[in-house]
Design goal:
The chain has 101 residues and is an alpha+beta fold. It is 55% helix and 14% strand. It has a three-stranded antiparallel β-sheet with strand order 1-3-2. Helix 1 crosses helix 4. The longest helix has 15 residues. The protein starts with a helix and ends in a 12-residue tail after the last helix. The relative contact order is 0.16.
């Protein structure tokens, strides 16, 4: 049986409008948490909550600089997420059941 726990983290990260907005901001490069807080008009705790989910999914990287955390898209994580979505949504005609014939 396949373990889908990593996939669930990826898709959880993508199923929220605020997290999708964060990803859209990060497309243009690394952003400090202070910039995301200001641009999104959310509090530090709300941003931390969303960033934990994004980082746990592997789609976003975080690095500490002083008291602020800087976030960027993870090329490796994004490629993995794209690959898994394609794998999970592409029909596998080799394993089709003939139970009703």
């Amino acid at each position: 049986m396949t373990d889908f726990s990593k996939d669930a983290k990826i898709f959880k990260a993508l199923c929220d409008t605020k997290r999708l907005t964060i990803l859209d901001y990060l497309k243009s490069g690394e952003k400090c948490a202070c910039v995301l807080i200001e641009n999104m008009n959310i509090g530090q705790s709300a941003l931390s909550y969303h960033m934990k989910i994004l980082c746990d999914s592997g789609i976003v990287n975080a690095r500490q600089e002083g008291k602020w955390t800087h976030y960027s898209l993870s090329k490796r994580g994004s490629e993995y997420a794209s690959k898994r979505l394609l794998e999970l949504t592409t029909p596998n005609t080799e394993n089709q059941s003939n139970c009703c014939k």
